Structures are given as structure tokens and as C-alpha cells.
């Protein structure tokens, strides 16, 4: 066989063996590198929930004057620049928490709170502070008479919230609430005083 005939035979063999040609020419593609995307804590979104706890005009939640309280809440969170900011509306039944006034006591019945919240997300945990305005309804007792209707005030607080899954989370929160210039009558004199209470609440939220 001449060199020319050998070359033609070799070319024909390659032409009739595409799988062999593919094997000889194929190479694995160079794997591409994708920079990992920072994962979100998943705190953004609207939520609703409920809470229970204790309230008292003393700091200790286990004092003899502490009352059982509970209510509902709803709000919205947004993650911005590594922080979580949000707003919340809360309605609570205060369990007739007794608060001291000159010469007697009044009872706190209901409270509506509008709160702003700023927190630091640590994965599935959120540590936050809160502040806002309140409206509290007061009731008379045998020792003092108070104002009709709702009285305005403000609150400060802090809490920690833990995600159980993408929708459900639990939290514990402390609130200090001040209701100013409350007029009361103790049977002999009329007085104005500032009322305050401490509430410790455990709650659960469902995020949409």
C-alpha cells in the first residue's frame, strides 16, 4: 500500500466513526465560578400573631400584684442594610392591672399600641428594640375614680424573636409603658399623676 492510499484509508476510517472523532475532540468544560450570594434572614414581610404575659406597676413579673394579660398583634418588617426595621399594631387586654394613684388605685383594662421596631438579625434570631405611642383605657376601683375613655402614653421595650420555620416564629418582649397626667379622685381630693407599668410577653407570629 502506498503512502497516499494509506492516508486515504485513515481519513475514511475517521469519517465513518463519528463517535471516535467525538471522543478524540471532546474535553470537559472549564467549571465556572459563581460568587456565593449572601443569604437573607427571611425577616421581610407582613405578619400577624398573638401574645400572653404578665403586667404590673412593679418591675418584677412575679410580684403579688402582677396580672395575666394577652392580645393580638400585626405588622410588617423589612431588611435594610443588615438591619431589620418595621412597624406593629398591638391590642392587649391588660387583665385589670392595678396602678397606684394618690390615695388609691385605678385599673388598666385595654391598651392599643403603635410601635416602631429596629433589630439586628443573627440568622434565625432577631434581637430588637421598640418604641411607640399607646392609648390605655382605665377603670375605677373602690378606692379611686379615674377618667372616662382612653388616655395617651408611650412605651419603650426590647425583645428577641426566634424563627421556627419560614412562616412561624416565637418571641419574648418586655415593655415599659407610661401614661401621663391621669386625673383621679380618691373621695376627698382630685389629683393628677403619671401611671406606669411593666409587661413581659411571650408571643408567636405567622409571616405571610
From TrEMBL:
Subcellular location(s) of the protein: Cell outer membrane
Alphabetical list of SUPFAM superfamilies matching this protein: OMPA-like
Pfam families: OMP_b-brl
Domain Outer membrane protein beta-barrel: 9-208
Stretch forming the signal peptide: 1-21
UniProtKB keywords: Cell outer membrane, Membrane, Signal
Primary subcellular site in the record, as a coarse category: membrane
Protein origin, superkingdom: Bacteria
Sequence similarity: Belongs to the Omp25/RopB family.
Identification of the protein by name: Porin family protein
